[in-house]
Write a structure and sequence with these properties.
The protein is of the alpha+beta class and about 120 residues long. It has one domain. It is built from 4 helices and 5 strands; from the N terminus they run H-H-E-H-E-E-E-E-H. A 5-stranded antiparallel sheet has the order 1-5-4-3-2. Strand 4 (about 100-105) and strand 5 form a beta hairpin. The termini are far apart. The structure holds zinc ion. The site of zinc ion has 7 residues, from loops.
Amino acid sequence: MKKRMCLACGEPVVGRSDKRYCDDGCRNAYNNQKNSIPNSFVRKINDVLKRNRRVLSEVLGKEKMQKVSRDKLLSRGLDFEFFTGQFMTARGQIYFFVYEYAYLPLDEERILVVRQKIAEERYK
Ligand SMILES: [Zn+2]
């Protein structure tokens, strides 16, 4: 059976088969957002950023830095067009921040993923 996801928060919905939200709170939240184009635009971008953050956090695991392939990040859903900031090192390398994580394209194929603190300490 296909799991139904709450239209507002994306969590699995339990209960009647026509139920589309967890509860009234989620239904109201969804309707409010739906009626507001700027909000839904902001929400979509926030969702991409949150997904990017989750992907970086997952590939990094407990490591402080990790080299991974671009394909691996892409296959996990990282969208390289969305980040929260950039940082150029003295050597001209550009780190792309996603909240407390950052990634640095090393070449066509490999990408260095770090926690932001590492990048700042190593390259300030
Ligand atoms: Zn919900």
